[in-house]
Amino acid sequence: xTKLYCILLTLLMLLSISTFAADTxxxxxxxxxxxxxxxxxxxxxxxxxxxINNQDVCSFAASAAIQTQVLGIAGGTAIRDLNxxxxxxxxxxxxxGMKVGAIAMLCQDARIFNAMEMAGTPCPFKGKIGLExxxxxxxxPEMRPDYDKWVKENVTDKEITKEEATGLxxxxxxxxxxxxx
Length: 181
Prior knowledge:
- The chain folds into 2 domains: 2-21 and 43-80, no CATH class; 83-154, no CATH class.
- A hairpin with a 4-residue loop joins strand 3 and strand 4 (72-80).
- The longest helix is centred in the N-terminal third of the chain and has 22 residues, at 2-23.
- Helix 2 (82-95) packs antiparallel against helix 3.
- The protein is an alpha+beta fold.
- Strands 1-2 form a two-stranded antiparallel ribbon. It has a two-stranded antiparallel sheet with strand order 3-4.
- The chain is built from 7 helices and 4 strands, in the order H-E-E-E-E-H-H-H-H-H-H.
């Protein structure tokens, strides 16, 4: 998501540069034998406007354009906000009386999953709630939304891989060879 913001920021910076250039109109006139006048104005690239009229939409628009002396490029897109969608879906489930479903929808976000765990009310796990859900999450940690972070914090067993075992064997063998010489 940060890469997307960096790209968007870069495009906006380029847009401001092309906007400053687009505001200036350069006109060149030359008169040949008093009757011929040639006017040449540079062309400009205009960024397309993307309109999202509904306030209940979880997306926003982004557009940018850049113009050189020869070529102009313009483009635009609509970007989905997945967290906004999750909140709206959860709210809809709650209004329909599906409270456990609403919590399960919110628990797809690692921040909410951790907050629920810290509060002592684990997120639902395939229909199980309470202590049964906590036990199921313990048995299936790979299904957690924060699995990568959880592995870094909780897995302390380090298995010796083949590469490490080979490196260890070569090291001991070279040490023994040096002692024999």
